[in-house]
Amino acid sequence: MPGAPRSADDVAALGFGADYNPEQWPREVWDEDVALMREAGVTVVSLAIFSWARLQPAPGEWDFGWLDEAMDLLHANGIGVDLATATASPPPWLTRLHPEVLPVTRTGETLWPGARQQWRPTSPVFRRYALELVEAMAGRYADHPALVAWHVNNELGCHNVWDYSDDAAAAFRTWLSERYGSLDALNAAWGTAFWSQRYGDWEEILPPRLAAAHPNPTQQLDFKRFSSDALRDHLRAERAVLRRHAPTVPVTTNFMVMAHTTGMDYAAWAGDVDFVSNDHYVHPGPQGPDELSFSANLTSGIAGGEPWFLMEHSTSAVNWQPVNRPKRAGELARDSLTHVAHGADAVCYFQWRQSAAGAEKYHSAMVPHAGADSDVFRAVVDLGRTLGRLAPVVGARREHARAAILFDWDSWWASELDSHPSDRLRYHREALDWYSAFLALGVRVDVVPAASDLAGYDVVVAPVLHVVPADLAARLAAWVADGGHLVTTYFSGIVDEHDHAWLGGYPGAFRDLLGVRVQEMAPLLDDEAPRLDDGRTVGLWADPVDVVAGGVEVLSAYADGEQAGRPAVTRHAVGHGSATYVGTRLGAAGPDGVAATLRTVLDGAGVRSELPDRARGAVELTVRTRGAATFWFLVNRTDAPVDVDLAGEGVRAEALVGEVADGVVALSARGVAVLRVAH
Ligand code: GAL
């Protein structure tokens, strides 16, 4: 990864930079740009992301002169280039010549040019033109000294993941025939005996377009899997060209691990890039900072704990939320450093200089409309200095926590399909509520894809783990039998990989492990908020739970409502481990509702906070290690100063960022300290 050290003694700098779009500015501005980049300590920029129309003004016509000049200028100023393949947004001539590359929505509408990313992931015509451009870019710049990485396309699937066109239909059939091998197998998997849906010919199969009633759920789930794979296929096709020209230059593409981006199964994509990159924008609402930390944590999980690259976030406001508030003092640095705390070895923004025209002219940048004489640019320069002090951290892995939250794209997709017990369920929100509870208790947790190795974890929380193939159920049961403490919730263990219900009572795949049985799922109406016997109010779901095994303890019961007196939270002791079932949404009255149950589970497993009492909840602790060196990141999540007394915890540390005085770290409001900790 660019910036990463090649050996233990070779210490590189953290990457710092932005998307750079010089083609939007007159040439004289470029000189000011690089002067300001040097002032800020910028080390890397992403170039040519939306430059196709400029690079290829017409079929067969190329204009690389301006890009040559920009590459040379950056190199002369010591700035590396993460060079985009420029295929993200096809030029108007291409879509005029080939309107058949335009995506089509579920309801049959064409997504016309005029914005960006107007291409079908499965269009052979688009693929041909895109690879021609990649070929030209790779051929020209493979040996350029500024080149540090290739950036395939941009945010693959941001606007075009769901394409229901005829190209998509054809590619979907091919994907299905590879998956199932025969129509009989497909008919069985899709349960087509229902509603007279039996297929007799592959050509009869379509994407789940607007239909008279709920489309077949397995067809919908497979279409989501296929759509993610179709974009992955595009990534691989571009990568193959890049590798041929520049076998040693690392290839990446910017993922969007964020609450509102559901379409791409990044856990599956991770193996297709040489290093993981992510884009993240703070989610509006009270759990925004938690969501930032959650996404950064999950990105680390996707990267297998290895360092990753924060390719985009914002210095201040974005332009695409209903109301776009600027960041408050301190948030620029705190947000960026939270990503570093979770393993980012680069901090990059969209974009370097705020555009004067176009749809993103109100989106913040490193150099805002106000220019360099601005609080934003001063904060950028300050952050550049801070990152300079963090060079020893480059290349450090995240230290394995004792607890994990499992995140699973199949379950995200399947649990939110239509024709379900409740359309109010939000997979990501449930996972985030558990994460918020860990933050509130000050206990470190790793967010990891469901397929991850669980060895080394004492506690695993699997919220709404809805799609559970037999092997996953067996793996979790074996891990519990070995002493693991599992927590799972309502609507978990319900279906297999084909979205077929596990029979015999819910939560089918986990019934024996949990020692409970639910005959009928019972979602709640919006105005139903039963109380538990400890006073917490819950919502969304209230499974009528029967205890069906010995060794099951009721941790909480309903105090009122239809289920009054019945268990809401149970724990089944299994060997040295346990399996806890939460049959309701504990976070319905706010994420704190989860913490009481989580504390009980953590206590049972002997997992404790490493922070002093007074800092818990206010401060997030993350740990990265590199060789014998251990680094603690302390992020003050509050708007008030917090003292963290490490001496009281027996921890000796020296500060890379912030200060330690008499064993106490004084964090300013929204402040961050980074410490090298002695064992
Ligand atoms: C990303 C995109 C950037 C810019 C940014 C604005 O989705 O990659 O080009 O649009 O959002 O927040």
Overview of the structural elements:
The chain is of the alpha/beta class. The chain folds into three domains: 15-101 and 114-162 and 230-394, Glycosidases (TIM Barrel, Alpha-Beta Barrel); 403-605, Rossmann fold (3-Layer(aba) Sandwich); 617-678, Sandwich (Immunoglobulin-like). Helices cover 30% and strands 19% of the residues. The chain contains 17 helices and 28 strands. The strands form six sheets. Strands 5-4-3-2-1-9-8-7-6 form a nine-stranded parallel sheet. Helix 15 (470-481) links the parallel strand 13 and strand 14. Beta-D-galactopyranose binds at residues 154-155, 158, 279, 281, 312, 318, 350, 360, 363.
Descriptive labels:
alpha/beta; Immunoglobulin-like; nine-stranded parallel beta sheet; TIM Barrel; 19% strand; Rossmann fold; binds beta-D-galactopyranose; 28 strands; 3 domains; seven-stranded mixed beta sheet; 679 residues
Short description:
With 679 residues, this protein is an alpha/beta fold. It is built from 17 helices and 28 strands.
Major sheet: 9 strands, parallel
Tell me the number of strands. Answer: 28
The CATH homologous superfamily of the largest domain is termed Glycosidases
Q: What percent of the residues sit in helical stretches (DSSP H or I)? A: 25-40%
Strand content: 15-25%
- At the first level of CATH, what is the class of the largest domain? Alpha Beta
Low-confidence stretches: 5-10
Shape by Cα distribution? globular
CATH topology of the largest domain: the name is TIM Barrel
Radius of gyration, Cα only, in angstroms? Answer: 26 Å
User: CATH architecture of the largest domain, please?
Assistant: Alpha-Beta Barrel
Mean pLDDT across all residues, rounded? 97
Distance between the termini: 29 Å
Structural class: alpha/beta
- How many domains comprise the coordinates? 3
Ions and ligands: beta-D-galactopyranose
Strand order of the largest sheet: 5-4-3-2-1-9-8-7-6
The helix tally amounts to: 17
